[in-house]
Specification:
The model has no long low-confidence stretch (mean pLDDT 75). The longest helix has 13 residues. It contains three helices and two strands, in the order H-E-H-E-H. Among the domains are: 31 residues, no CATH class; 27 residues, no CATH class. The protein has a two-stranded parallel sheet. Helix 2 links the parallel strand 1 and strand 2. It has 131 residues and is α+β, with helices and mostly antiparallel strands. 24% of the residues lie in helices and 6% in strands.
Length: 131
């Protein structure tokens, strides 16, 4: 007898999903930004910022996401550049594959390590302050 997965959520099929809005991931001219008002402004389109933006938009709110990263999609050549940079770095830390971005400086620490499961980390912590 096969056990049921608790609280299994059915994923929407590709046909049921709304298409990504055309032009939603483009750079917006500053003049346009100044003329509009938004219900929420999210700084950073990382996983948390993107999830929050989606939830707010689904609730009918207007959302502006400010992102320091490039506004273009990555190409195969660009991806291969990340791989080559990673392998060429002496330290294989959290930023090894990425080119430097003066608008989004990131701390680099070869001392960061994955904590052991079930064991609290007591040797320190990682703080990334904003500007």
């Amino acid at each position: 007898m096969q056990a049921k997965k608790p609280n299994a959520t059915k994923r929407a099929s590709a046909a049921d999903r709304k298409p990504f809005p055309a032009g939603a991931a483009r750079r917006t001219p500053l003049g346009v930004l100044a003329e509009r008002t938004y219900d929420a402004v999210i700084v950073g389109a990382g996983i948390s910022g993107a999830i929050i933006a989606r939830q707010l938009a689904q609730a009918g709110k207007t959302v502006l996401i400010l992102e320091a990263g490039p506004g273009e999609d990555i190409t195969l050549k660009g991806y291969e550049g990340y791989v080559e940079r990673f392998y060429g770095q002496t330290s294989k830390d959290n930023q090894a594959p990425y080119p430097k971005n003066p608008n989004a400086r990131m701390p680099r620490s070869p001392e960061l390590r994955k904590p052991a499961p079930g064991v609290p980390e007591t040797n320190g912590y990682f703080v990334q302050p904003g500007p």
